[in-house]
Amino acid sequence: MAPDYFLLASIYAYSFLLDDRSEPVLNAFDIRARTACDLYNFGLWRGMATGNKGALDLTAAVRKLPVGTLAITVDLTNYPWKLEAFEQFEPVDKYAIRGISIRNRSKGVGSALIGVKKASQDAHFPQAVPTTIFLRINASLVELTAGTATASLEFYSAYDDNLLVVKDRHPPLETDTTTPTAYVLETSKVWGFGLGAFWGKEFESIPNGLYLTQPYRPGRIPVVFVHGTFSNPAWWAEMLNTLRGDPILRQKFQFWAFLYNSSAPIVASAADLRDALRNKIAQLDPEGKDPALREMVVVGHSQGGLLTKLTVVDSGNSLVLALTGKDLDSLRLTEDNKAEARRLLVVEPLPEVKRVVFISTPHRGSILSKQWVRTLLRKIVTLPIKIVQTTLSLGDYFTDDVKKMIGNSRSATSIDGMSPDNPVLKTLADTPLALGVVGHSIIAVKGDGDPKLGDDGVVAYTSAHLEGMGSEFIVRSGHSSQGHPFTIEEVRRILLEHLGRQATLTQ
Questions:
Q1: CA 234, CA 188: separation in Å to the nearest integer?
Q2: Using CB atoms within 10 A of its CB, is residue 32 exposed (0-12), middle (13-18) or buried (19+)?
Q3: I need a labelling partner for 88 at 20 to 30 A (CA). Which of 127, 207, 377, 479 fits?
Q4: Distance from first CA to last CA of the chain, Å, rounded?
């Protein structure tokens, strides 16, 4: 009987807060209003927990309460998804948050929930969306007692700007955008991916791919996060949480993440990123009706920044020349190997990407990419067979400098790719961004000295600096700077600037 008593308490609290009354409307600072709001929200959660083992049952029903009867219908007018797409809904108040410094929660009426999407066959990571339910009581307490009361259970997404109207009043909705993010991270495989993937142990079980952290919404600009070496998308959690906490950004952007085997050659991972972006756009918008998908922002950290740059440059034959000293067409390769080499090394910019952000990116190599380190890693890293075969087919054509860089091995890893001696890296550093693309550099430097003489422990300022950027921001941090609050605020500023660009284009 507990859920019935909780629901009844929620109805009484609703009546006190929002029903017509002879007394003046409650002041928002009245402690009774705040207490009644908490009772309404908590009672609604526990009142709907009539499923197996206390699970939420958010379907239409007639509830016989200790006092009266209430007929509940479901209203999805303001909810962008169908309930059939969800495995379950979990109340955020069941969970404590760890590992994320700020819990973005706005106080109001309604029960904040985690909407857990059903897993699809090709989804290796779960999706969860911040949801709020609001029970609108369409009757007086007299009608409740008489058994003729009705109510509407309304669903809202915290990603939207919802205006709740109750009898000419506008109470704010209770929302929580942090707990769904933490829930996904806690229950996904992503924490085990990173170092193990670098050694090649998980590459086949979780292939390179673009993963949506939230269901696709037309009209919202994708922001794609690309992680670095030994890393995974979980390292973006702090930034993702803060950006979603901004009411403007969460309504204008949708956040995606690219997951890849960070030991593979950089050009191979970059080719997979370009393919993944093309394929996702074709899948989501085959008729080209969503202009927001053509205003994409890609944000890369460390090696991920190199992959990011390879989405917005026109290399022509320059990368092939840097490796072999010849044009691709002059190399005696099979047609299959030539096609793969063209996919990897003859790069054309993606027209959908309009802005890129480089965070702690080794454009001219890493100070840790020493010869002995690269030699050791080649002995213990397991690369996918397709990458090895492509590298071997090109190996005979490598210049003497390239052969010297990779030693006796013909299978270069990403660490070779980040060597300051790598001619491909040198060529890429000097290749400008495509016309119309805006770039931003966020460069981490440890200590308080002259930043131009410093480094972050992995990448020197001189390597991370690029001419022609729209902005350059120095953050005093070590290499893993993507979670630093100043880095996050700079990305927030860049995204707001991007919205200004979009507004200008639509005028």
A1: 10
A2: exposed
A3: 207
A4: 58
228, 412, 450 from 374: Cα distances, Å: 17, 9, 30
| Six-digit token string for 89 | 């809904």
pLDDT per position as a tens digit, 457-469: 999 999 999 999 9
pLDDT of residue 263: 76
What sign has the CA pseudo-torsion 436, 362, 418, 279? negative
Summarize pLDDT for 12-53 with one digit per residue, the tens.
Answer: 999 999 887 657 777 878 899 999 999 999 999 999 999 998
pTM, two decimal places: 0.86
pLDDT, tens digit, 9 for 90 and up, residues 414-430: 555 567 777 888 899 99
Q: For residue 317, what are its two tokens?
A: 């034959």
| Strands 175-176 and 221-226, sheet pairing | unpaired
CA gap 65, 47 in Å, rounded: 10
Rounded Cα gap, residues 41 and 255, in angstroms:
29
461, 466, 325, 483: which is closest to 403 by C-alpha?
325
CA distance readout (Å), 46 to 3, 50, 92, 485: 6, 8, 12, 37
Q: Is the pLDDT of residue 244 over 80?
A: yes
CA-wise closest residue to 342 among 334, 350, 354: 334
Residue 418 vs residues 410, 422, 443: alpha-carbon distances, Å: 16, 7, 17
Tell me the DSSP string of 343-390. Answer: HHHS----TTEEEEEEES--TT--TT--HHHHHHHHHH----HHHHHH
How far apart are alpha carbons 337 and 343 in whole angstroms?
A: 10
Q: Which residue has the tokens 């009361």?
A: 149
Pairwise CA distance, residues 143 & 147, whole Å: 6
Measured in degrees and rounded to the nearest 5, phi and psi for residue 503 equal: -65, -40
pLDDT of residue 205: 54
Phi, psi of 309 (to 5 degrees): -60, -35
**pLDDT tens-digit profile of 469-503?**
999 999 999 999 999 999 999 999 999 999 997 66
